[in-house]
UniProtKB/TrEMBL annotation, chain A:
Protein name: Translation initiation factor eIF2B subunit delta
Region: Disordered, residue numbers: 1-59, 81-101, 429-457
Keyword Isomerase (UniProt): no
Keyword tags: Cytoplasm, Initiation factor, Protein biosynthesis
Organism: Eeniella nana (Yeast)
Lineage: Eukaryota, Fungi, Dikarya, Ascomycota, Saccharomycotina
Main location: cytoplasm
PANTHER family: TRANSLATION INITIATION FACTOR EIF-2B, TRANSLATION INITIATION FACTOR EIF-2B SUBUNIT DELTA
Cross-referenced InterPro entries: IF-2B-related, IF_2B-like_C, NagB/RpiA_transferase-like
Subunit-level organization: Component of the translation initiation factor 2B (eIF2B) complex which is a heterodecamer of two sets of five different subunits: alpha, beta, gamma, delta and epsilon. Subunits alpha, beta and delta comprise a regulatory subcomplex and subunits epsilon and gamma comprise a catalytic subcomplex. Within the complex, the hexameric regulatory complex resides at the center, with the two heterodimeric catalytic subcomplexes bound on opposite sides.
Keyword Cytoplasm: yes
Stretches with biased composition (Basic residues): 92-101
Domain of life: Eukaryota
MF term (GO), any: translation initiation factor activity
Biased composition (Low complexity): 37-55, 435-447
TrEMBL record, chain B:
Gene Ontology cellular component list: cytosol; eukaryotic translation initiation factor 2B complex
Residue ranges of coiled coil: 159-215
Main location: cytoplasm
Keywords: Coiled coil, Cytoplasm, Initiation factor, Protein biosynthesis
Subunit structure: Component of the translation initiation factor 2B (eIF2B) complex which is a heterodecamer of two sets of five different subunits: alpha, beta, gamma, delta and epsilon. Subunits alpha, beta and delta comprise a regulatory subcomplex and subunits epsilon and gamma comprise a catalytic subcomplex. Within the complex, the hexameric regulatory complex resides at the center, with the two heterodimeric catalytic subcomplexes bound on opposite sides.
Matches recorded under SUPFAM superfamilies: NagB/RpiA/CoA transferase-like
PANTHER family in the cross-refs: TRANSLATION INITIATION FACTOR EIF-2B SUBUNIT BETA (PTHR45859)
UniProt family annotation: Belongs to the eIF-2B alpha/beta/delta subunits family.
UniProt-recorded name of the protein: Translation initiation factor eIF2B subunit beta
GO function terms (MF aspect): guanyl-nucleotide exchange factor activity; translation initiation factor activity
Subcellular compartments: Cytoplasm, Cytosol
UniProtKB/TrEMBL annotation, chain C:
PANTHER family in the cross-refs: TRANSLATION INITIATION FACTOR EIF-2B SUBUNIT ALPHA (PTHR45860:SF1)
Family, as annotated: Belongs to the eIF-2B alpha/beta/delta subunits family.
Entry keyword set: Cytoplasm, Initiation factor, Protein biosynthesis
Localization per record: Cytoplasm, Cytosol
Pfam families attached to this UniProt entry: IF-2B
GO MF term set: guanyl-nucleotide exchange factor activity; translation initiation factor activity
Name of the protein: Translation initiation factor eIF2B subunit alpha
Principal localisation: cytoplasm
Subunit architecture: Component of the translation initiation factor 2B (eIF2B) complex which is a heterodecamer of two sets of five different subunits: alpha, beta, gamma, delta and epsilon. Subunits alpha, beta and delta comprise a regulatory subcomplex and subunits epsilon and gamma comprise a catalytic subcomplex. Within the complex, the hexameric regulatory complex resides at the center, with the two heterodimeric catalytic subcomplexes bound on opposite sides.
GO CC annotations on file: cytosol; eukaryotic translation initiation factor 2B complex
Organism field: Eeniella nana
Amino acid sequence: MSDDETDDTKSINVVAKNDVVPSRSTIESESTRNTEETIQSKTQSQSQIQQPEKTLSNKELKALKKKAKAAKRAAAKAAMYDEGEVSNRQGGRPKRNTASHIKKQLNSAKIKDNDVRIPPMFGHLETREERISASPVIASIVHPSILALTLKISTYKIVGSTARCKSMLEAFKDVISSYSTPQGTSLQRNLTSHLSHQIEYLKTGRPLSISMGNAIRWLKQRISLVSIDLNDEAGKRMLVDEIDEFIKEKILYSDRVIEEYASKHIENNSKILTYAHSHVLAELFKYCALEQDKHFEIYIVDSKPLFEGKKLAKKLAPIENIKCHYNLINSLSSVLEKSNIDFCFLGAHSMLSNGRLYSRVGTALVAMAAKNKNIPVLVCCESIKFSDKVQLDSVTLNELGDSDDLINTEPFNKVGFNLQQYLNKLAREKEENGQSHNQNNKGQQNQKHSKHQTIDSEEDTVLSNWKDLKTLYILNILYDLTPPEYIQKVITELGALPPSSVPVILREYKGLT
Amino acid sequence: MVHVYLETIEGVNNVHLNVDDSLSTRVLVELLREHLPDKVADRSIIALVGGIPVTHYQTLRELLDSGGNSGSPFVALQLRIPICKGEGKLQGRADEFIALIRRIGQRIVKAQPREFTAGNILRRVLAIVREEISDSTASASANSAPVNTAMFRLLVAPLDKEEEEQRKKERSAIDAENDGNSHKDVLRSVVIQGIRELIDEIDSVHENIAQMTVDLIHDNEVLLTPTPGSETVLNFLLKASLKRKFTVLITENYPNDIELCHRFAKKLAEAEIETVIIPDSTVFAVMSRVGKVLIGARAVFANGGCVTAAGVATACECAKEHRTPVFTVAGLYKFSPSYPFDRNSLIEVGNSGKVLPYADSDLVGKCEVTTPIFDYVPPEYIDIYITNIGGFSPNFVYRIVLDNYRTEDVEFS
Amino acid sequence: MSVSPKFDIKEAYLKFLRDDPEMTMPVAAIEALLTMLKIQQPSTSSELIRLLDDATKQLKSSVSNAISLSAGCDMFMRFVLRNLHLYSDWESCKKHLVENGQLFLQRAKDSRNRIAKVGINFINDDDTILVHSYSRVVLSLLEYAKSRFVRFRVFATEACPDKGENNGIKMARLLKKMGISVCLIPDSQVGFVINKVDKVFMGAEGVSESGGIINHMGSFQIGVLAKNANKPVYVVAESHKFVRMFPLAQDDLPPEMGTKLIFTTDLDEGLVDHPNVDFTPHQYITALISDLGVLTPSAVSEELIKMWYD
């Protein structure tokens, strides 16, 4: 993260006032030039309009554009495909959606199939590339806040259902504030569709979380309820206020209530097991240690590739009252065997209507192991994360991560896969001898390598070109499903309940949101 | 820094090593070659087992791995050398010979208490020796004791102290009589023959286990293996791929075996087996699609439990929750006659820097980190053991163990 | 030919039990049979077999709790038969048997010591152990562990109903005398404390062929609770308690164990006449600690098979 900050300061220097929407003419005029340059300038113009308080570096914005591109480019090495894709992404103009355009899109999708290899059984899951190609070509009308957010989400800088939902709502506030109703239509009608475009774009980063979906549904409902008598400004102000209220009520206060409930389980000298990172749990542990002055031990179990547990550990380790233990998931049985764990607290991505917990992959394993050791498993989950979906296993509904994240020995080496591709390309262009580089090495983890250092991989390179092996797949899914029998209690802001009561909550409180 | 010096006891050269963590295996081996006289060079492996500081297990294992699949063949090989040469006190009587092997056993076990195979092989050798002795005494004294089952222990007819002593005298008389003449040589050649067979057995473990592949894997099956470090599993799968088409899911076993996992996956993929690498956390998510779980073991205990790579116990537990059969492939030499009384004493702990590297300096020192390298899988999580002598259910392992080891040799000390 | 009236095998058996509290039922049965042999002096082998057969039957039918007794009788029978068939020198064998009555008792005690040595590995510092009812083997194991300075705590069950024998209270008292801290709990409280327990130790009246055990009433429910809580259950039993039975459920216990269940509206009717033992199937047992070492359930059947078929 520290690397970003250095870049942030730079980006502030480049701030220039500009229109909210990048001028179409800029793009138009450049469209004849080299495709590569087009994108560069486009991203530049976007980064310039960006407000300084958005802590997003120039580079990252660039990367955002590259992200989508580079993955495709990796596959379609031939320049002609590049051309086609650029035209895909460039417009946002309906006239682009001609038959030949769609054909091109299909073409590029086909080529991607050779490259993005999804393991058997998981072929039904959407890859990021598919998401991008499926999303309408709307980049030009996407609000910069959303662009920034999409980038942060897709690089797992903002991760976790709560955080994503919150920052999405914040971004929507920006969108709404800078929105102006076109002539001949009303805010109630047009804002929804405007937001839909933003959401479509947001989805290209990662699929929406359940909480985001719930929040969006709520927001759209609110928009439709804005009184027709209000003028635009008042309507927008009202919506922004309501979003603030929503965040407060559904996330901040809910978390507070959950902390209050759950803190009863944590006593002095308790030993708590938890997995990965959950916003509400981090707050809960802090609350117990700092405000209630309880002394206890936390066993954080973590796993590849996201290492979210480290985030939790970083939050908790400095607190004196908490003794932190950090373990990877393969030492789970040893942790349970050696230490007398009192409770297992788990965070949630979503609680499904049939009582199953949809959460970070590995949660089910921890819940199972804890249950088998008779350790009560408690799930802390805001009611905004409740979903009326039903699911039976983790295979049918899931989200695919990037396979390469598992091969890189330093996962998420701050530079995303696609950015690296782009940087490699830059390097290639600079050195005329266009030598292709592999992206896995930790030497690149900071962004300084944009100075076109040659990349030498010193780490494990056994599988650096795993894609050459036709029968090798790497599975990186993000979630799994924990059966209700492993869960003793779900703690929500509406009280503690057994997992079987999730549909009750959904029925009773649906109208209230 | 490496300090190498040689020590000779009872016909076995021991190399004591003081190994720095940063030293790569290759460098280490080269250094060894350099420091050791030619004659001793091929003897160095056992010496390593005997002399290496316990904490450097990984390096040791890599060393062993670089030469073969486990420590045991070396131990067996190395044992043969002193015996063949009849060095030192080996000219003595059979019981002294037994005592020698037990001493070696003590040293090896003490040096690496969690490496069971070496001890197992020594016990096998002891069993061979004892067998030979009891055969010869039995033939000498025709009045063999009635074959009574252990349950009759309460009632069995007299085997008083007096008589016991008499027998002892008899035996030593026989030994004394034979001292220096043919019997000694017979014993030695029999034992050497036995060790040779043992080595052959170990060498052919993979082939023998692989013979059973056809019975265990059906077409288009999805297998999961959480032990990508196991040579036995690799061989099993490669053999199976000749006859069946199947998919293998491999867990990464991060951070311990990640490199091994990649190599393992590469080898499978090169054999055109559909191979999927999954992170350790994904085991539960995919388990409902897995037909069988295949694991390798480091050691198998008399109760049917086994010690294997960290994380496997959770994976097997998960398989049990899904009613997915778990089978373990292990050579006979992995079966240990001891009982896993204390789980934690079986588990080696590794370098925690792999879990929290110094890059996370704000956590290092503030978080307690444990990195077990092994895991104990209780017998109830395992459905069958596939060995080079056939398949067994875990609760029959006690019998295999009784067949191959003598109860008096379970403890070396 | 029947057992002559001048010798009452049941009386002899009960006398042995009374005289020496350390003596277990199978050993007492063997001693009683030996005493009978000493008195009756059978002359032919067929007479010997008949005599033993009758005495065994008589003993089994006259004593209410015959399971571990029959283990002793059966083993003795097999031993005699085996020696008769295989070896010519039955005489010397008989001489040995008849003369060394005291030896068996000593050996039985020895096997308890051997069990203690095997079993101590199962007890670690800071363990909380649940024991059920009174068992000499468990007692000697815990005593040995105590003498080796293992620090542990014990939950002892009251083991009701036991017809006024106060087995659980007796166990608790003996343990306390050894300096082991004990918490005596009613049987109905086992579920309440099971999560605080690390492992369960039980004795056995008989170990069935499947590896399941016949033990004092209440063992089954403790086994089920322990299994549910994933706590290991170790059965501590000498190998001479292995008995050739294969009950599948409680009803398969011999009828003399008294499973009379009366449903009545009679207000004066109190507690039902309860049996003294129940059957715990092998799946609830983690391992058997016996003088032959730590056994899995299948090892029990192997030992029995070796004894009965060859």
